[in-house]
Amino acid sequence: MRVRVVQHSSLRRSLRRRRALWTGGEVLVTAGLVLLLLVVHQLWWTNREARRGAEHKVQALERQWGAGAGGDGGSGDQDGSGTAASAPPARAGSGARARGHSGAAPSSRPVRSQAYAVLVIPRLGLRVPVAEGVSKRNVLNKGYVGHYIGTQQPGQTGNFAVAGHRNTHGEPFRYINRLRPRDLVEVETRDATYTYAVDRTLPQTSARDSGVVRPIPRSLVRPGYGYSEPGPYITLTTCTPEFTSRYRLVVWGRLVAVRPR
Length: 261
Hints:
Number of domains: 1
Mean pLDDT: 83
Structural class: alpha+beta
CATH superfamily: Sortase
Oligomer: single chain
Largest sheet: 8 strands, mixed, barrel
CATH architecture: Beta Barrel
Low-confidence stretches: 71-100
Number of strands: 8
Helix content: 25-40%
Strand order of the largest sheet: 1-2-3-4-7-8-6-5
Shape: elongated
Strand content: 25-35%
């Protein structure tokens, strides 16, 4: 009968291999859990916190405007005021009058990163603050919509252009690709509510296509999309495809009604 002799060195090598495999497995499981937590944080937690903060800011603006309704017009607005209506309200459907409305200069210039208006899109069930500027940290990541500095204010002739996240941090513009011609987009300010009707959509353009936010918005990348004459426009921009920031999706609308508060 032959007795098998096991060398200690072979046992040690076998133990080391098992230990390495076990350690490697633990590292992979830990890394997987960390990645899962990061995904949950980005896709759920940031949305939850940003939406809650945005809702509170909308409520705060509405309380502020209500408190100032019987006062002096809110000259002390710390968040920046909206634009005032200097012309009689245009009725929905009276496109000529709405296009001719130039609006008035804001009673005070909006403060950078501060919310001063509320964007409402009934079709999407959206009601979100509008803040001055498009800083990710101070505006967009709070779940707000950001107003491109240098573009016009609500109701003015020119282009009131805004941006919002499509994914994470409240993702207010997640579904703006679902908007169709004649869908309404409202901008509420301290002084008036400006109603725009969706007119055109640019499904995809370069992130550097600055033409879409010009006073007469027209794509520099895809010139067939945009306008050729002055008017009171609104521009909504967000990233596309979803979960990327490579391109931009653009929705345009025209002013159709102004309702003083």
